[in-house]
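Objective 1b: paired records.
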Amino acid sequence: MTFAIPQWCWYVAQYVIEARVTNCEQPSLLIESVLIKADSPEAAYAKANLLCSSSEHVYRNRQGEIVTQRYVG
């Protein structure tokens, strides 16, 4: 049996995210890798920039401390 695989073009975007925890002086840097399907490197870059805005958020960790994540680059 033969399967036809469509010509997909995937790009890897890496986000650098700064995570700050209340009462902690030093922030942590997270590197997040994401696969993006796009027609060109420019289109992948544009999609990555749109997605990065959703990576910024605030939440409470298991210890009840407030964690703020901010997109750096």
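Objective 1b, second protein:
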Amino acid sequence: MKNLILVLCLLMSFSTFAETKIAVVNIQKVITSIKEGKNVMKQLEKAFKKKQKELKGEEGVIKKLQKDYQKQSLVLSDKAKLKKETEIRAKIQALQKKTMDYQKGIQKQEAQLKKPILEKLKPVIDSVSKSEKVAMTFEVTASPLVYAESKVDITDAVIKAYDKKY
């Protein structure tokens, strides 16, 4: 008797779940599509281009050093060769470190600029989810949701609602 009741409960819960409407939203697309997000992307692009120009300049210096070394290597003493090679390696390592530091800085700046948007986005997603009458909403790029019989993409509705509200 216990097993029969358990089976009936399970069947009822599965039938209820089968009718559940699930939504997905692409938050990255929302951020890059809304007006506020486009401004953030422009700021990040400007900062990136400035740093990229600086890195390319240093890369040019290293290439020139390498080219000069190749031309002079036949006439340089072993000690002078070693000194030049060490100098070039040090510049390459410094450039790699600077590149990594710039990447971390850009990522940190991106997180800081996107944080207020994400905080305002949550209630908008909640509102759109309720108006679409969905039981659950998953972020499409991070969710483990692989399949849902009845799933709705609310990304465009969230973009419109966000721009309308803010």
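Confidence is low (pLDDT under 50) at residues 6-11. The CA atoms of residues 46 and 52 lie 10 Å apart.
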